[in-house]
Amino acid sequence: MTMAYRMTRTLPADRAAIIMPVDHGLIFDRLPGLENPAAVVEEFGGDDITGFMMSPGLVVRTEQYFAQRPHLSRVMAIDAFYHYTDAPAGVGALQHSVEDAVRLGVDCVKMLMPWNTTKAEQAALVGRVGKVISDCERWQIPLMLEPVMLGAPRTPEVVAAEEQAARIAFDLGAHIIKIAFPGEEGTRRLVEELGLPVVIAGGPREGDAADTVEAVRQTVVAGARGIIVGRNVWQRGLPEAHSIVGQLAALSRSGGRTLQTV
């Protein structure tokens, strides 16, 4: 399989990708709504989404489910960072290899890029990313890199710092950049300046369903290639959660031009 094949599976050409993350157990405390990640996959796998972001353990546990649903892509997280509530003292590490990802048949690998850490941890992270990029090119699988000010409040200064970190991710050789929503203008600027596929993270559950749908509308209109939305869906009641997914799917297929009411 080639890089182009796996990129197209991860980010379809005919719509914005909707990738549901269920990999939070690698760095977060136990999250309400994600007590059983495999059950979340089965609950939403039949909705109009394009794939899931998963831990290696969940990839193995759900292999039969995905074998029967080859239209769904899988992005596998291959690193972790401890502890997300104290980034300046935290330490990251690879916990699986690119070769493991290829062996497991996933379409893309994903790494965190916490940038509000020590200079020593930043240097170690750059080294890890460089090795992963080299392995990704050899194995022909894309790397989704997530520049983030981990655990920081969403102030204008933090948003600006993440945009700067996204430029560093570009220079390191990321194939896809995942970033917390910097607003419609910020998203458009990143898409235009970096020239790489940009996907936007939904982040923690905030506001009501209409806020989530509107943020995604702005994301798609601004040119992002995908939406990574988890907690803003599976931490809500199931009828509302499925309704949100349906509306996000409509936006992803229309370029953001159709906004339904929750």
Main features:
10 strands; 11 helices; 45% helix; single chain; alpha/beta; 8-stranded parallel beta barrel; two-stranded antiparallel sheet
Oligomer: single chain
Distance between the termini: 40 Å
Looking across the biggest beta sheet, what order are the strands in?
1-2-3-6-7-8-9-10
Structural class of the helices, strands and pairings?
A: alpha/beta
Give the fraction of residues assigned to helices: 40-55%
Secondary structure tally: strands: 10
Walk me through what this model shows.
The chain has 262 residues and is an alpha/beta fold. The chain is 45% helix and 18% strand. The protein contains eleven helices and ten strands. It has an eight-stranded parallel beta barrel with strand order 1-2-3-6-7-8-9-10, surrounded by six helices. A two-stranded antiparallel sheet has the order 4-5.
